[in-house]
Specification:
alpha+beta
């Protein structure tokens, strides 16, 4: 009997650890809030103005709603392109760890949309370093990349691998 209890506890613990860290109601709720604000140009999510990475081309603002598991985020406005929110997740020295986190994020986003979405993934090599991008499109067809709802990117810089989520909005 004691062995059975130990086996059940071990299996239960394994199942809990195998779940995606993004599979939580808090992520789905906050993600959908950001998606809803995208059609309004992210006005309600804009915080304080910050220094732009590209002065003169874009304006950047702190984002008021940080998604669960994201380290930080910013809203980027441009006169030439759609506004977007860019979320950054904890970097790692392990490509595998970031790839798994990216796959979990993509799966959670697909569930959170709660409607048909089409994804397109491309991986290119920059030298010997792979850069992966996954675009999410509304409906069941791939539109031009510029029409994507979201973009999940995995890339490397300075011996660290990064995961980012870009949610595109509509111009006001």
């Amino acid at each position: 009997m004691k062995r059975l209890v130990v086996i059940v506890v071990v299996l239960y613990t394994y199942c809990l650890s195998a779940q995606s860290e993004f599979s939580a109601r808090a992520f789905y709720t906050d993600f959908n809030k950001v998606i809803d604000e995208a059609s309004k140009g992210f006005v309600a999510l804009m915080g304080e103005k910050r220094n732009s990475d590209f002065p003169g081309l874009t304006s950047e603002y702190e984002v008021k709603l940080i998604l669960p598991l994201a380290d930080s985020g910013k809203i980027v406005l441009s006169s030439h392109a759609r506004p977007y929110v860019l979320y950054f997740f904890e970097p790692s020295r392990s490509r595998l760890k970031i790839d798994v986190k990216g796959a979990d994020l993509r799966d959670a986003m697909t569930i959170a949309f709660n409607r048909p979405v089409c994804t397109r993934t491309e991986t290119v090599l920059s030298g010997e370093i792979p850069i992966s991008n996954t675009w999410f499109f509304e409906g069941t067809s791939e539109l031009p990349k510029s029409m994507a709802i979201c973009l999940v990117s995995v890339f490397s810089r300075n011996d660290l691998y990064y995961l980012t989520l870009q949610i595109n909005g509509e111009k006001r």
